[in-house]
Structure formats: structure tokens, C-alpha cells
Amino acid sequence: MLQSLAGLRAVSPESRERDQRAAFLGLVGLIGAATTAICLVLSQFGGVASAIGLGGLILFASAAAGAALGFLFSVPRVLSTGEDPTVTAGGKRGSANNRLMSTNTNMERISEWLTTMIVGVGLSQITSVGGYIQSFTGFLQVRSGATLAAAGPFILVVGLVSGFVFLYLYTRLYLSSLFLHVEQLMSRVGLQDLPKAIDQIRVIAKELAERDNASMMKYIASVDQPSFDHTMYVLNALLYEDRGYEKVLEIGDELEDTAATEMARYWLIMAAANGQRHHNLASLGASDEERAEARKAALRASRKAVLLDNTYKRRLKELSNPKASDNDLQDFVKDPEFMKIVGQ
Questions:
Q1: Are 266 and 260 a contacting pair, CB within 8 Å?
Q2: DSSP letters along 274-306, please?
Q3: Mind giving me the DSSP string for 133-177?
Q4: Which residues cross the membrane (predicted)?
Q5: Residue among 156, 169, 71, 76 nearest 114 (CA)
Q6: Per residue in 13-71, pLDDT tens?
Q7: Where are the domains of the chain?
Q8: Which residues, in sequence order, are bridge partners of residue 258?
Q9: What is the Cα–Cα distance from 170 to 25, expressed in whole angstroms?
Q10: What is the pTM of this model?
């Protein structure tokens, strides 16, 4: 392995998907605004152009109103504020983590107030709907003729319902996950999703520090909460120890359910550890099934690393050079699937 693995936290596929969904909603808004502006210009002319412009304005204005209602009706409620509902022996609630910020629920309150008000006002004015529609059609008939006057109420209802359904479903299906993601980030401000094997990391760092007098290892052994970067540093050092890859794989398995899997560096280390395992299994005369399992794990980790950070292709290829000092993946130098991963 390379002594210095300057792996960066890469953007995960889940993060990219969240960004794309948010960008899509922004794109829909821009297209709607641009189309509305075009319709506004057309409405200033006479004849068919004016009718098309007014029809478009009715459609997009009602769709915007419906979308606003759909959002208000679908704003998710924040149930967690970072407290653990379990009660301690002293009768006090335990705290899962000490949050530095609390969730702003103003949007929820406004949504509830407006929803209640809209429903109440709507029910009280339902008998006046016929008069409003008649006034609306009268305006359209004066402005653009009988055709648009007849179609106007239908366009209004279609836009209102379409906008409501679209943003209601989009919020429930996609935007709610964004709200949840933000809530999870806020609940971990100042903390990291630390591995269960954190005590092992400290012990290993302490042993390496005492043996090699390494200042970085001394620091990691002394901190209260080693970070993921600290953990990767220790795991990287373990790869140089005799059969150290076994401990790396053990700790790496516990990290599978943490945010470490969003780091290309983590997958590079796991690929190297599985590469060492694959090579040692051959020298120990292990079965083909065991070697196939190690190969599969090494290829999976390599693929994950490249997916998160394309520049890791070069690092993986360097590790497959049998003549290099760091040749953890030397068994894969002629492996077709591995060569495909590294772009050869």
C-alpha cells in the first residue's frame, strides 16, 4: 500500500440522486416561469395569439397555486429532535447525542395554519363558487371570445389539480427524503457515525505508537473520538503488519453500516486487504472457493472505489504491479475483470 493515502470523501450515488431531484424541481420552476412569461407576451396581442396567451396564463397560474397547496398539504413533520426516548435509572431522558442545533419547525406550523385556514375559508365560501366562475367566464368572453370563456374554467381546474398532484407526490416521494437527510445531518453536527470497533482503533494506534514512536499514532490513541480519517490511517498502517489484513477486514466489516462507505479511501483499503488475503490463501493452499470469495470481495471494493472517485483507477493499477513495493493486488494484474475496472 502507499504510505500516504490522501483519499477524499467522495460524493455517493445517493447524494447525487438527491441533488438531481432537487435540481429537477428547480428546472421545472424555471421552465414554468419562462413559459408563463411567453404567454404573458402573447396575451398582449389580439386574436388567436391572445387566446393562447391567456389560456397559458390560466393554466400555469392555477398550476402554481395547486403546487403551493400540494406542498403545504405534504410538508413532513419532524418527529425526532435528537433525544433518546428511553428513560434512565434516574428518571431522566437519555440523550442519544448532544445536538448543537435544533430543527426549525416554522414551516410545519405555517403549513398547518394555512391548511386549516384554506379549508375553513373554502368551506365557508363554497356557495359563492358559482358566482366567481361566472365572473371569470364573463371576463374571458370580453377579452378573448366565447371559446376561451367556455374552456377557461376547465383549464383552471386542470392546472390546479395537476399542480397539486405533482408537487404533493413529489414532496412525499422525493422532497421528504431531502428533509430527512437534512435532519440526520443536523442530528450529527459535531459528531461522526463512529465505528463500534473504535476501542480497537485506539488500542492498535497505541501499540503502533509505542513501537514506532509515531506522533500521529500517539495523537489518535489519545483523542476521545477518532474520526473516520483517523480510522483509515490506522487501517492503512495495519496493512504493513504481518497478517494485518485480517484485522483490517474485521474492522472494515463493522464499518460497512457507517458513513465510511462513502469514502473511496475506505474501499481502496478494503481492496488491498482482500488482495493480500487472496495472495496468502494461495500460499496456504486454500480451496478454490475461498480464493474465489477473496477475489470477489477485492473486485467489489475496487469497483466501489472507482465509482466514488475515478482517480482511484491509477492507484488500483499501481497496487497490481508485482514488481512494486506496494503490490497488494498483484494477483489481479492479468485479471480481465480487474483490468476492466481500472480502465485497461
A1: yes
A2: HHHHHHHHHHTT--HHHHHHHHHHHHHHHHHHH
A3: HHHHHHHHHHHH-HHHHHHHHHHHHHHHHHHHHHHHHHIIIIIHH
A4: 22-45, 51-73, 113-133, 145-170
A5: 71
A6: 666 777 788 888 889 889 988 998 998 888 888 778 888 888 888 899 899 988 888 88
A7: 14-80+101-187, 198-341
A8: none
A9: 9
A10: 0.49
